């Protein structure tokens, strides 16, 4: 047990112990659908993330307010907002997610490391509409069980993959929303070619592809668009920019004719 994912999952086991003692029950509340947004658009969907810090980057931006950041994401045309809720490694908070949910009317993704049903129930209580399941953190059986559990509660489920075997598992369990993480969670190495490598097979299955991590320039965005991505998940570039609109302009301009400027 040495890599960062193992460390995070060990911490999650402790959280789960505490959560279980609270015996939270599922609500089955109505969720905002991200899937239907994708169904109704040909535009690249942007999931804009609120991320204060990360194990790979340390502090990214400790001063931003989650509500004003999320409002500007929504005003600039984000299709969904992602909120890091892990405290120990990402300095996130479930309270951030609840505040964001109340402030915007687009779907909110709970960005955490889910390995147990109780965490999904807690995310539901906090107001999440979309759940992330990381294939690298779950064996096939648990991935399938948690996927089904979250879907039954009405969540859209984003299944995150980083290699062919994980992509196949995600397709096999019938995932309709598959995120390709360009960042290797154990080495932190980022390579946008991951999206180019894995997108074709995923697209063939009929699932939507979201390209995640390390996206900054119009060239990055154009590459993943050309690879077939239906959406992108962007954190750092939004959190470090003075205003978020420039990044949205970059996204809108990608794929169009380059200006000489
Ligand atoms: O800040 P970036 O490089 O734009 O990346 C955003 C997002 O993809 C990243 O935060 C992420 C992708 N998968 C994760 C799983 C857990 C925590 C975080 C993540």
UniProtKB/TrEMBL annotation:
Pfam name, any one: IGPS
InterPro entries (UniProt xref): Aldolase_TIM, Indole-3-glycerol_P_synth, Indole-3-glycerol_P_synth_dom, Indole-3-GlycerolPSynthase_CS, RibuloseP-bd_barrel
Coiled-coil residue windows: none
The protein's Enzyme Commission number: 4.1.1.48
Catalyzed chemical reaction(s): 1-(2-carboxyphenylamino)-1-deoxy-D-ribulose 5-phosphate + H(+) = (1S,2R)-1-C-(indol-3-yl)glycerol 3-phosphate + CO2 + H2O
Residue ranges of domain Indole-3-glycerol phosphate synthase in the record: 5-246
Pathway: Amino-acid biosynthesis; L-tryptophan biosynthesis; L-tryptophan from chorismate: step 4/5
The keyword Lyase is assigned to this record: yes
GO molecular function, one term: indole-3-glycerol-phosphate synthase activity
Gene3D superfamilies noted in UniProt: Aldolase class I (3.20.20.70)
Key words, A-Z: Amino-acid biosynthesis, Aromatic amino acid biosynthesis, Decarboxylase, Lyase, Tryptophan biosynthesis
Family: Belongs to the TrpC family.
Protein's name in the database: Indole-3-glycerol phosphate synthase
Species whose genome carries this gene: Cytobacillus gottheilii
């Amino acid at each position: 047990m040495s890599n960062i994912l193992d460390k995070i999952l060990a911490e999650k086991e402790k959280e789960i112990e505490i959560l279980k003692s609270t015996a939270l029950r599922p609500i089955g509340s109505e969720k905002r659908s991200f899937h239907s947004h994708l169904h109704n658009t040909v535009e690249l969907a942007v999931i804009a993330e609120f991320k204060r810090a990360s194990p790979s980057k340390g502090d990214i931006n400790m001063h931003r307010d989650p509500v004003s950041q999320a409002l500007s994401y929504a005003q600039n045309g984000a299709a969904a907002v992602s909120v890091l809720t892990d405290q120990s490694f990402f300095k996130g908070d479930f309270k951030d997610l609840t505040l964001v949910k109340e402030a915007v009317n687009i779907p909110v993704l709970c960005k955490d490391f889910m390995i147990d049903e109780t965490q999904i129930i807690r995310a539901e209580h906090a107001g999440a509409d979309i759940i992330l399941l990381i294939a690298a953190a779950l064996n096939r059986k648990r991935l399938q069980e948690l996927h089904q559990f979250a879907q039954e509660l009405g969540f859209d489920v984003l299944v995150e993959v980083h290699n062919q075997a994980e992509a196949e598992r995600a397709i096999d369990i019938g995932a309709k929303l598959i995120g390709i993480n360009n960042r290797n969670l154990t080495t932190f190495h980022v390579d946008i070619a991951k999206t180019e490598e894995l997108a074709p097979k995923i697209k063939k299955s009929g699932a939507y592809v979201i390209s995640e991590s390390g996206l900054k320039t119009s060239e990055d965005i154009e590459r993943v668009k050309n690879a077939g991505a239906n959406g992108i998940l962007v954190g750092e570039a939004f959190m470090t920019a003075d205003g978020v609109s420039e990044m949205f302009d970059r996204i809108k301009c990608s794929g169009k004719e380059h200006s000489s400027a």
